[in-house]
Structures are given as structure tokens and as C-alpha cells.
């Protein structure tokens, strides 16, 4: 129980920001490209309560934490409602709306990285804040990589559907009703993490290092 409380305390804020901004980014992008569905339903919001799913965001992660002793965690927020037919150029704009979520997570990973540098430069000795900042980087890199996996309804699946020729895009999109079960099976078999998430997270980490190189240069 003590481990759970400590884990929740460290990860609560990073996870809340990661989920909220991910979903809000989808809504903002959809409105930008012509679909007001999420906006009209109040989902274009930075209020976490608008995006939290009691079952997927709270209950499932807690149950999995105890069932697997913290070895496996999974959760989800309420998907932002998007009517792709309302987008100005549905097939093309679908990709941009999908990429907005992972893009927001990468941006947050960058901001948490800057927080780490700020804590070091500021001489902050409190370990809790450093753990939270590192949790922020990890959480957002995980969400970035996982959501880019190219199976619908994940964002990567939407992007791939957008890029495929119409004939193949239509057939590929038909996977969506079974996509969740396919993804969960691949997660349990550790296929997604080993062959997709780990390489993507590593590449994203290298990009973060490249972007923040001027700051690290100051440390030397």
C-alpha cells in the first residue's frame, strides 16, 4: 500500500497532464481542420474531468497494479469524439488530427526535461520533485510511442489509414472494431514494447537530447 501511495503521488500529476493535453490536442486539431464535434461537446478543454474515464483511467490501472505487483499497467481516457466527415479534407486531415495527441505528449516530455534541468540549475534538493519530473518524461514518452502504434483505433492506425491508397485504407480501417483486442494481445505478448515502443522511445529520447543540447552544453 505504501508503494502504491508513493507511486500515485509521483505519477498523478504527470499522468493527468499527459492524458488531458493528449485528448485536448485532438479536439483543438479537429476544430482547426473543420470538425466542431468535440468543441460542441465541451471536450476541447484542459479540464482533466472532461477526459477522465472512471473505469479506464482509475479502476483498471489500480487493479492491474495490484494484480501484477506493478509489473504491468494499462489505462485510457475517454476518446475525443471526431466526425472525420466534417474535416475539410477528411483523408488528409485525419492524419494531422491523430498526430496532434502524440505531438502534445512529445512536447510535454520536452517540458518535463526542461523542468529537470531547472531543478538541477536551481539546486533543488527535494527528491520528490525530481522523481515527478522524470515520471513526466517517461509517462509522455510511453504515451507518445504507444499511441503511434499503427493499428486503429490508435493514432498511428489513423495515420496509416490516411497514408494508404483509398482501396487499402478502406480495408485496413475495417480492423478497428477488433483493434483494441489485437493491441492488448500484443501488449501481453510484449511484442509492442520490444519491437515498437522501446525503439520509438529511444529515438524520441535522442531527439529530446538533441533539442536540449544547448542547455546540457552549459553544464559542461
From TrEMBL:
Segments traversing the membrane: 53-74, 95-122, 128-149, 178-196, 202-219
Q: What keywords is this UniProt entry annotated with?
A: Cell membrane, Hydrolase, Membrane, Metal-binding, Metalloprotease, Protease, Transmembrane, Transmembrane helix, Zinc
What is the recorded membrane topology of this protein?
A: Multi-pass membrane protein
Organism encoding this protein: Herbaspirillum chlorophenolicum
Single GO MF annotation: peptidase activity
Could you confirm whether the keyword Metal-binding appears in this record?
yes
Q: Know the name of this protein? A: Site-2 protease family protein
Which domain of life does the protein's organism represent? Bacteria
Tell me, in one coarse class, where this protein mainly resides. membrane
Please name the taxonomic classification of the source. Answer: Bacteria, Pseudomonadati, Pseudomonadota, Betaproteobacteria, Burkholderiales
Amino acid at each position: 500500500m505504501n508503494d502504491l501511495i508513493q507511486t500515485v503521488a509521483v505519477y498523478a500529476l504527470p499522468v493527468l497532464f499527459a492524458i488531458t493535453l493528449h485528448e485536448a490536442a485532438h479536439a483543438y486539431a479537429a476544430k482547426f481542420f473543420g470538425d466542431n464535434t468535440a468543441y460542441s461537446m465541451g471536450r476541447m478543454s484542459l479540464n482533466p474531468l472532461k477526459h477522465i474515464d472512471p473505469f479506464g483511467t482509475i479502476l483498471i490501472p489500480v487493479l492491474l497494479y495490484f494484480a501484477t505487483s506493478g509489473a504491468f499497467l494499462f489505462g485510457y481516457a475517454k476518446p475525443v469524439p471526431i466526425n472525420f466527415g466534417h474535416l475539410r479534407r477528411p483523408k488528409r486531415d485525419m492524419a494531422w488530427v491523430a498526430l496532434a495527441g502524440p505531438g502534445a505528449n512529445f512536447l510535454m516530455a520536452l517540458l518535463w526535461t526542461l523542468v529537470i534541468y531547472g531543478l538541477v540549475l536551481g539546486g533543488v534538493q527535494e527528491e520528490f520533485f525530481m522523481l515527478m519530473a522524470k515520471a513526466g518524461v517517461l509517462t509522455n514518452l510511453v504515451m507518445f510511442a504507444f499511441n503511434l502504434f499503427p493499428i486503429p483505433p490508435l493514432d498511428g492506425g489513423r495515420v496509416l489509414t490516411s497514408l494508404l491508397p483509398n482501396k487499402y485504407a478502406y480495408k485496413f480501417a475495417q480492423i478497428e472494431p477488433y483493434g483494441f483486442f489485437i493491441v492488448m494481445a500484443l501488449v501481453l505478448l510484449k511484442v509492442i514494447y520490444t519491437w515498437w515502443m522501446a525503439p520509438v522511445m529511444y529515438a524520441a529520447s535522442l531527439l529530446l537530447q538533441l533539442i536540449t543540447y544547448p542547455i546540457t552544453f552549459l553544464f559542461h
